[in-house]
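Protein Record: Sequence and Backbone Structure Tokens
======================================================

Structure line: whole-number tokens from a learned vocabulary of local backbone shapes, matched to residues.

Purpose: to set a sequence beside its fold so the mapping can be learned.

___
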Amino acid sequence: QVQLVESGGGLVQPGGSLRLSCVASGNIFSVYDMGWYRQAPGKEREPVATITSGGITKYADYVEGRFTISRDNAKNMLFLQMTSLRPEDTAVYYCNAVRLTFGQSYTYWGQGTQITVSS
């Protein structure tokens, strides 16, 4: 089992930057695909950025080059560097880990960290 703990959320002004971190424990981090998801009030949880165990990244269209997802397997950590933040980026951001093993999906979530973009 993988346990995930996020940090780095908070209040930031429009146009500002923030870096989210997620540390994993309880299993082998490197074999999991990882991602950041977010959920705004009244909205469904949606993917922001993902990174496979092999390091392949994918971003939501609205990111528009503003965010960078990365991982440090040696430290069991996942990061999301966020720049040019907009008020519409306000949401709870969740760290995610997923692994398919012999046809069964294993999915883990952190508790989430609040990001508020406002003047």
